[in-house]
């Protein structure tokens, strides 16, 4: 029996942000600003997505001047397919229930035409 | 504010070191980004989120609560031992019997978790919150049995139903039965690894029966302590859902019958037959409900016949848990309900099996994979 995969509104927001530029490596603060999620919400979601190999993670190469190296994220090939399917199947009312930072995310997702 | 931010950043760095290597990068990632977040409250909130993440990944709250619970159980066990020494007059012939019973129960609570440190039947504790809660609460209830022993003797008095004076012979017979059984199990497992598990269980059951006849309460305390540890260990055959529904059903059965017994209780014991019937019926029915729920909740992808058998098994196990929990609850509050320590699990097995069989053929049910994250219920 196959398990139904249901993502929360917050997870969908993260997937939407990553799927908008699937080839680009994004860092946590960038994703937090785009999705409106706090670090305590965003990172556990990234951890779970990475555990399921939907998201790939790596450290920035080289040592940039004036700041520490960043941890970067992007969708894997399978992850992109999963994200697109999940975003396409996401019911509109569920995405509208997200809170402020959260409320912005679904609109942004719709705007991205995913 | 700056000082607080620096403190949180330092705390996050230290907490990251507590995480397993494969998880450490996530806490470090939050720290690495903190410099990009505007100073002040936003950066403070960012770092606090990182601490929350690190605590979650280290399963710290779970560990802290679990060990606080284990400490409380140890304190309760020490209190029961102290109470058995303090409340029983030393000239009473039954005092030594009481003390030995209490000491055996407490020893089981100390020795079995120590044995369970290694991967085996008794431990370590399962990863779920349910397993930890049931383990701590169950061990506390076994401590409560020590109080029951002390109360029971004061309730029954020195008459024919009392425990009687201490018998060294009985204790030796029980200890010998335990030793022989353990040695036999070790020999059989070492020399004949292909022996059927049912035969090993049969051997253990025979030794248990001998022990039960010789020293019933000590045996029950050991069996309950071992059962609680085995049901909540990582290798337990009882899945989390079955453990949860069994425990809830057992609590409901125990508390419902307790209320009914208190309502029906009269000085003349007029309704004692009705109370007995009520206890038995409620335990059986709620064990059946637990069995049905456990079977219904079990999903799978394999062979339908195997799935049905697995559901029957989980139903029976959930029913047994319900019966045992009901027995523990009743005995902790009503001394004369001590028979339910044996009757509860037996009724539970029967009820759980009936419920499991009834629900084994329901349509397969799919569940979303769920995870707690940042206090939000995040579903995958």
Strand segment count of chain B: 2
Which pair of chains forms the biggest interface, and how many residues does each contribute? Answer: A-B, 33 and 39 residues
Q: Average pLDDT of chain B, to the nearest integer?
A: 80
**Distance linking N and C termini of chain B:** 37 Å
Structural class of chain A: mainly alpha
List the quaternary state of the chains: heterodimer
Largest sheet of chain B: 2 strands, antiparallel
Major sheet characteristics of chain A:
3 strands, antiparallel
Share of residues in strands of chain A: 5-15%
Strand residue content of chain B: under 5%
Question: Please, what is the average pLDDT of chain A?
Answer: 77
Q: How would you portray this structure in words?
A:
- The complex is a heterodimer of chains A (114) and B (380).
- Chain A has 114 residues and is mainly alpha-helical.
- Chain A is built from 6 helices and 3 strands.
- Chain A is globular and about 45 Å long.
- Chain B is mainly α and 380 residues long.
- Chain B is 75% helix and 2% strand.
- Chain B is built from 13 helices and 2 strands, in the order αααααααααααααββ.
- A two-stranded antiparallel sheet of chain B has the order 1-2.
- In chain B, α10 (240-264) packs antiparallel against α11 (272-297).
- Chain B is globular and about 75 Å long.
- Mean pLDDT of chain B is 80; it is low at 366-380.
- At the A-B interface, α2 and α3 of A face α2, α3 and β2 of B.
């Amino acid at each position: 029996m196959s398990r139904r995969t249901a993502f929360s509104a917050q997870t969908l927001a993260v997937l939407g942000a990553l799927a908008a530029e699937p080839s680009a490596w994004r860092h946590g603060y960038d994703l937090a600003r785009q999705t409106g999620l706090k670090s305590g919400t965003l990172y556990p979601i990234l951890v779970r997505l990475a555990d399921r190999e939907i998201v790939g993670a790596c450290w920035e190469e080289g040592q940039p001047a004036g700041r520490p190296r960043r941890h970067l994220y992007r969708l894997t090939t399978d992850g992109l397919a999963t994200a697109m399917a999940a975003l396409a199947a996401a019911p509109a009312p569920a995405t509208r229930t997200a809170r402020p930072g959260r409320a912005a995310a679904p609109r942004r997702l719709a705007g991205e035409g995913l | 504010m700056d000082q607080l931010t620096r403190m949180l950043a330092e705390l996050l760095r230290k907490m990251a070191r507590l995480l397993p290597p494969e998880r450490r990068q996530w806490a470090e990632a939050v720290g690495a980004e903190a410099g990009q977040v505007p100073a002040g409250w936003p950066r403070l909130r960012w770092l606090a989120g990182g601490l929350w993440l690190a605590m979650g990944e280290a399963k710290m709250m779970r560990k802290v609560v679990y060990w606080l619970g284990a400490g409380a159980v140890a304190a309760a066990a020490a209190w029961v031992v102290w109470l058995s020494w303090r409340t029983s007059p030393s000239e009473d012939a039954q005092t030594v019997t009481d003390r030995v019973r209490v000491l055996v129960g407490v020893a089981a609570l100390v020795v079995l978790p120590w044995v369970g440190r290694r991967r085996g039947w008794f431990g370590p504790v399962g990863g779920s919150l349910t397993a930890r809660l049931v383990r701590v609460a169950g061990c506390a209830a076994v401590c409560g049995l020590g109080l029951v022993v002390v109360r029971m003797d004061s309730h029954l008095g020195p008459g024919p139903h009392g425990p009687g004076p201490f018998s060294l012979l009985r204790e030796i017979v029980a200890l010998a039965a335990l030793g022989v059984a353990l040695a036999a199990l070790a020999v059989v497992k070492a020399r004949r690894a292909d022996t059927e598990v049912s035969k090993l269980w049969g051997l253990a059951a025979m030794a248990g029966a001998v022990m039960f006849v010789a020293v019933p309460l000590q045996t029950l305390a050991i069996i309950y302590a071992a059962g609680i540890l085995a049901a909540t260990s990582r290798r337990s055959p009882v899945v989390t859902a079955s453990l949860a529904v069994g425990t809830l059903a057992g609590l409901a059965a125990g508390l419902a019958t307790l209320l009914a017994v208190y309502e029906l209780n009269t000085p003349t014991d007029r309704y004692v037959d009705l109370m007995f019937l009520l206890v038995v019926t409620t335990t059986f029915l709620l064990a059946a409900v637990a069995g049905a729920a456990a079977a219904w909740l079990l999903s799978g992808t394999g062979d339908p016949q195997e799935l049905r058998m697995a559901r029957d098994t989980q139903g029976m196990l959930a029913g047994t848990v319900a019966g045992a929990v009901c027995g523990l609850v009743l005995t902790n509050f009503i001394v004369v309900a001590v028979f339910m320590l044996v009757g509860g699990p037996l009724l539970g097995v029967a009820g759980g099996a009936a419920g499991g069989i009834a629900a084994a053929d329901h349509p397969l049910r799919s569940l979303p994979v769920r995870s707690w994250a940042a206090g939000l219920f995040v579903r995958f």
